[in-house]
Amino acid sequence: MTLSKQERWSIAVGMLGLIATFGIARFIYTPLLPLMQASLGFGEDWAGLLASANYVGYLCGALGASFIHSIATKRFLFRLAIVVAALTNIGMGIIQDDTLWLLFRFLSGLASAGGMVIGSGLMMLAVNPRHSTTALGIHFSGVGIGIALGALWVLLLKDGLTWQGLWISTGILLLVLGLPGLLFNQWSLNPHKKVAIDSAVPHRAFKLLITLIALIALAYFCEGVGYVISATFLVSILQKASLVPHLGDYAWVVVGLAAAPSCWLWSQLARRIGDFPALIAAYLVQAVGIVLPVISTSQVASILGALLFGGTFMGIVSMVLMYGGRLGGSRPTRLMGLLTACFGVAQIVGPAAAGWMAEQQGNFNLPLMIAAGVTVVGAALMWLAQRVSTQHGENKK
Fold it and tell me: What's the angle, vertex CA 144, arms to CA 228 and CA 297, rounded to 5?
């Protein structure tokens, strides 16, 4: 399978935008949180609210992006997302004001949606549908690369920079990484993609598979709850639970490195055993990764938990959205928007509730156990969705 020059450039620029606006801008808060708490003394409840503000922004941006169809508008918003992501990071380091911090994290969430939803959409429009699986695997690796890069940035520079300096420096890093996205002017609709869009017909799923859609949406909500607590607090949890210096930072690097190839790996497994069996397996593996820090505080358990968590969350996201896109037929963004909304609501509720519980309990054991349990419920819902899907297939014969 040979990608054209135009496709290669589109994938590379889209991936760099995803690294900047999503992998770093969204997740740099996790390794920086312990440094901020140590310096400013705020509790887990405020930390959770700051995280939730970011997820509110992402939800608003993702839903808004689903209604944008003009390529020219998408180009502009993709560039704007890169600039906003960089400036809000810099603002977090320059200005110390609670209200403005909430605003900055909200705007950063909007920018993350621009990189993820709009950037991914531009990339997919520019790629031959036959190359979609390969393109998505490469593109979504940007999330894991960004997480790992941000974690290494903090780990290597935190002895020489304050938390303010780290926020500012990552903002500058975002601009550098996002520069190709700011300069790239060749986003265009692939001719093969245009033929596929023109020939697509609305899928009967919207009328006949309401139960299937509802089960998948509920399962994806469960994933949002399960994933977001570790995604927000993992470094802080491990820093406080372990006597090993920088264990949380090392674990967060592992999360990023495991996430980088996960979309491609899970897509290959889904092709072999089916979408739902692969999703159920990913949910269960993630549940184990989430709860391991509760079961054991050893270094091995911490790193293994990070590996299992990092190796599943983006795989689940990509598999659910790709399946939802197929169910959506000629209007895939409608169903993908619904799924994103369910995931987004869970992400908003999760950090705030987990932070409040941790502040009351003195640790994150209860939130993590709840997150793991909710993830298992998500796996059960995916199993039910598989049964409904099978029955529908039999009824059509």
Answer: 55
